[in-house]
Amino acid sequence: MLSYGRQTVDEDDIRAVVSALRSDKLTQGRRVRLFEELICEYTGARYCVVCSSGTSALYLAYRASGLKEGHSIVTTPVTFLSTVTSAIHLGGVPAFCDIDPVTYNLNPALLEDTIKKCNRPHAIVPVHFGGLPCEMERIREVADRNRLFVIEDGCHALGSRWKDGTGRWHRVGDCAFSDMTVFSFHPVKTITTCEGGAITTNDKTLYTRLLHLREHGITRHEKSFIGMSDGPWYYELVEPSFNFRISDVHCALGISQLKKIERFIDRRQKIADLYRTLLSGHHFIKTPCERNDVVNAYHLYPLRIGFEQIGVSKKLWFKEMEARGIKLQVHYIPIHLQPYIQWRYGFRRGEFPESERFYREEVSLPIYPLLTDDEVKKVAEEIVTTLTTQMAV
User: Fold this and answer.
1) Which is it for strands 236-237 and 93-96: parallel, antiparallel or unpaired?
2) Which of the chain's ends, N or C, has fewer CB atoms near its CB within 10 Å?
3) Is 359:334 a contact under the CB 8 Å cutoff?
4) pTM of the entire structure?
5) What integer pLDDT is reported at residue 392 of this predicted model?
6) What DSSP character marks residue 106?
7) How far apart are CA 96 and CA 10, in angstroms?
């Protein structure tokens, strides 16, 4: 069965994990700090804090930014629930900005109006959907005018790059136009640590607070102590938090994976190019946009199909594709359509038409480095065959 995503783990990765298991420290050891240093080196950010998951990273970033009860975060409806629920845990309130119909990212042209409707806006949270970078310069300009934080949800986009107005290239995560960027290392992402996440930032104050919050809210650094140290075992509570640490075993896998990230991305881009060649030319199919000023890491390959236009049931078609050995996915159910979110915050169907239209049409195709060209061709052939057959009926 072909799935939309899966991990790429080889013998080098396995040896790295075994070596970590045989070391003196399984957690809070040197591999954690080394992984952070390598992420900084790769993204161009000054600081990095790795943690237990992408969701943990979002929570930590929101909390470090000072998000409190009643503060609003402005984000896209087309994202995973964690982008919003991590803020809700802190009393944050979701506010949604509809997507751009071409990029599928948050539409910067709608940001100002969205912010005006917010009660106590606190942060803009752009999501680099599928790996395609958002228009960060425009978003930063809006944020600065409104004195808001910018926290990039880069969970899809480790390795993605974009060019600014001066012609300079940026990697997602360098935080040149944001306060923090959040990543996920779930198995279907660009690289994996099994479960894991990271926050990058260029702000030392935010970095220091993230370190405290990751580890129960305590500090072991003598310069931070308020009281007098009793000895080398001494620590102090800065503010109550939880354990969001990641182990050295996980980081050993991450270090090994990061060495191969460009190869992974190159293969994903080749798969995307092949899908584009095989699926372009059908009036009822729309492939993802291509831009000269970005490099897409292609965590997802979001295909749009005009199901309503051709009179095909998306639900029945999904079942037919699965019967043919291809398990597709949809990213995502717009968050404002979740019954809990509607009940608690008063959102209604129809408020964000581009996001809802995208949901009705979007299908995520298999894309991961181990996918072969023959398998890509099979997916494309089955898509066209099943859709044209159902159209004929």
Assistant:
1) unpaired
2) C
3) yes
4) 0.97
5) 54
6) B
7) 40
pLDDT in tens, 77-87: 999 999 999 99
> Domains of the chain (ranges plus CATH)?
2-258 (3.40.640.10), 261-392 (3.90.1150.10)
pLDDT of residue 221: 84
Q: Is 341 exposed, middle or buried (0-12, 13-18, 19+ CB in 10 A)?
A: buried
Q: 364: which residues sit within 8 A by CB, 6+ positions away?
A: 4, 300, 301, 302, 303, 328, 329, 330, 331
Contact criterion met (CB below 8 Å) for 294 and 319? no
Q: Give CA–CA dist 312/304, Å, rounded.
A: 13
Q: Which residues of the chain have pLDDT under 50?
A: none
d(CA 194, CA 290): 30
Residues 6+ away with beta carbon under 8 Å from 245: 27, 28, 32, 51, 52, 214, 215
pLDDT at 198: 98
Are residues 145 and 139 in contact, defined by beta-carbon separation less than 8 angstroms?
Answer: no
Cβ atoms of residues 94 and 85 within 8 Å:
no
State the residue for tokens 């007098």.
Answer: 228
Q: How far is CA 350 from CA 225, 346, 380, in A?
A: 53, 12, 32
pLDDT tens digits, residue range 270-308? Answer: 999 999 999 998 999 999 999 999 999 999 999 999 999
